Design the sequence.
């Protein structure tokens, strides 16, 4: 296993604590505690470009200090491997790597509370 795959596996393993959470619980956690929600309500929204890589760079400082990064990532992983918008601090390639490890773990450990 490469170091990168091992890192993806560690991220996926850390998300096991959310395996019993429902999508509604995850969504609520992100909407209430997410830094992105705070940015939306304060009017300090970055000037989104509509280009994924550029928007991820703009979102990175917001995501970096977010207290619900893991719940946000879990929520997006449950939506599938298609990355739409900015979800947590991962780029598209890292998201796909974590997704593969997450699917493997949840298959062995009983899925999650969709």
Sequence:
């Amino acid at each position: 296993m490469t170091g990168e795959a091992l890192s993806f596996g560690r991220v996926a393993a850390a998300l096991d604590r959310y395996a019993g959470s429902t999508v509604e619980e995850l969504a609520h956690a992100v909407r209430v505690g997410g830094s992105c929600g705070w940015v939306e309500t304060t009017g300090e929204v970055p000037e989104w470009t509509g280009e994924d890589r550029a928007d991820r760079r703009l979102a990175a400082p917001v995501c970096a200090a977010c207290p619900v990064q893991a719940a946000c990532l879990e929520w997006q992983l449950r939506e599938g491997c298609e990355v739409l918008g900015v979800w947590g601090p991962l780029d598209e390639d890292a998201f796909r790597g974590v997704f593969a490890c997450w699917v493997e773990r949840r298959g062995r450990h009983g899925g999650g509370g969709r």
In short: The chain has one domain: 3-109. The CA atoms of residues 37 and 50 lie 19 Å apart. The two ends are 30 Å apart (CA to CA). Residues 3-109 form one domain.
